[in-house]
Write a structure and sequence with these properties.
mainly beta, three-stranded antiparallel sheet, single chain, 186 residues, five-stranded antiparallel sheet
Length: 186
């Protein structure tokens, strides 16, 4: 590759990286990621990175796909696939000794990557969470009905769970022994 072509390639990659879409939401009543909107925004890269508390963006390992750093996809030898299942459990006890527990589990993410050219060009695909919504808002009220000379107890529950999933696809490219670049346009 001659020098001018290399500079054009670097310029193109920089332009792709800088031209990322910018989005802002204003609904007049708070963020669209609130508990009554789309949920809380998640940053999920892989189960290995989650186990390290979200660190390890620059960490590379041939055994798993690092979605936080698509440049690591360039150094692939084998096809990799992984899935993540999440189980959450909450147990609470009040002052009088009453105990309640809640557990839920779901398929969290599916990841797949393969080399187009071994240790030079790699492709990564992922289906992972973008937002997560879990809420329960309960309103208890006591209404007095004068016509019946009675009091009625009412309870209104607003509950929901779920969120949005995102599909990512990208490319990692090896340029130099100390330089790899990657892009995830979707």
């Amino acid at each position: 590759m001659n020098i001018p072509a290399f500079h054009r390639l670097i310029g193109l990659l920089l332009m792709l990286g800088v031209a990322m879409p910018v989005a802002a939401q204003h609904t007049g009543e708070g963020s669209v990621y609130s508990r009554f909107g789309l949920g809380s925004r998640l940053d999920y890269a892989s189960s290995q990175l989650q186990a390290m508390g979200g660190g390890g963006v620059g960490l590379f390992n041939l055994n798993y796909l690092n979605l936080s750093n698509p440049a690591t996809w360039s150094d692939q030898v084998l096809t990799r696939a992984s899935g993540t299942v999440v189980f959450q459990r909450l147990r609470a006890t009040d002052a009088s000794g009453n105990t309640a527990s809640l557990g839920s589990g779901a398929l969290h993410a599916v990841q797949f990557s393969f080399p187009l050219r071994t240790r030079r060009i790699g492709v990564g695909l992922a289906f992972r969470p973008y937002t997560r919504a879990n809420y329960l808002v309960r309103t208890d009220a006591r209404q007095i009905i004068p016509e019946l000379s009675d009091t009625v107890q009412t309870r209104i529950d607003y509950a929901g769970e779920g969120g949005l999933q995102q599909l990512n696809a990208g490319l990692g490219l090896y340029l130099h022994p100390r330089l790899s670049v990657g892009s995830v346009p979707i």
